[in-house]
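Ticket 4471: requesting a sanity check on a complex prediction with zinc ion. Repro inputs:
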Amino acid sequence: MTMARGLPRARLGASALTLAACALAGCDGGSPTDDAATASLDAARIEADAPGLDAPGLDAHGSDDAALAPDAATSGEIVELGEAVTESSGSAGELDVAVTITDQRSFMVVATSENASRLSVLSITDPSGATVLRWQDWWDAPHFLTGAIFTERTGTTINWPIRAEDPPLEPGTYLVRIGSYRVDGVTSRPDIDVTHTTITNRDHDLADGVVHVAIVWAQGMSDDAALVDATARAVDHWNEVWGGVGMHVEVRYVESTIDPALPEPSAMSGDVLLAASSLVMPGEVAMIVGETIAGGTSLYGVAGHIPGPIVPSPLGAIVVGWLSNAGGDGVFSDADLTLYGEVLAHEVGHFVGLTHPVERSYEMWDALTDTPECSDAASCEASLGTNLMFPYSICDADSCVSTTILTDQQRGVMQRYTGTR
Ligand SMILES: [Zn+2]
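Returned structure tokens:
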């Protein structure tokens, strides 16, 4: 990928600093969620080379087993899906999405550019007119709150509130301001059609939560009985890990004809993520299991965005390459299964809003106060190496350190995700 994170126009002068921060955050590959869960610490990143993506052939009947899908996804009981609305970003290159709140706990706004312009969230104002999120507070910060403020993708997704310390929703109208930019991510691009969808959630139980995930098999993957079995066992372990903070995942499986050589999520690979997210039910998290990511096995998995959308979107899936999870020999050992389950738990952890507690630069941290702020490999591995969201695997020849820890504030983020019911 050659695309670097850019700046909204007002911050052009600060580019050197913020681009450095971007590289530290691992978003130079086109996504703030580029996962550092690489197969080894010093594995060279294999860059996705902007493929002229064939739109993957969609399995028109990929939702044949929709009867097994969560009925709450579209029932309006807990998670309510608004209509998709298309409107122009106007002469200012900005538009306000109004979100009406009565008694809901959380909302999500998913926006997609109609012509591959870059979109980002600039601010959120609450019903009193107070600004509760502004991009300027987080762009240069050494703490990563949300991927929504960055202008590198052809869409954006914001979940609000994000943390326990963010103000709970109040009845009234919130305004989510979205900006449209050229591919450089810097230059405002006015008069762009933006399609946006608002999802709200009225589950006020922040102690327990369920996320519905549809695992989308890339073409041919479900013919591999060993992979199917390993994935089911990995999901069991994932539930053990998430269960520590009252989170549970319900998984179903969907067939597809998506190429098992998966791309890394980026502005260039949105078609694949859109295809996968279009095969699942609204309200579900889409996760593609294929063979490889970006042509190699240095990545276990990559989330499409932090947070991830639960309606069709070019940000709307997680990619997982099974070969790297099987440890390179193509056979899942018990240690591999533990790792695989923790990779799934980690990547969907990103999708529900979690960032790494520390990035591999050791100079950028999450926006939570109960994960230590370490600043070198030794201290970070000692203090955070067992946290589920640690950015890389700590492995010896036989196995990797198990990452099963989630903190109270990480739980708070997961429980406030609009897809958590
Ligand atoms: Zn990660």
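Notes from triage: The longest helix spans residues 225-243. Leaving this open until the requester confirms.
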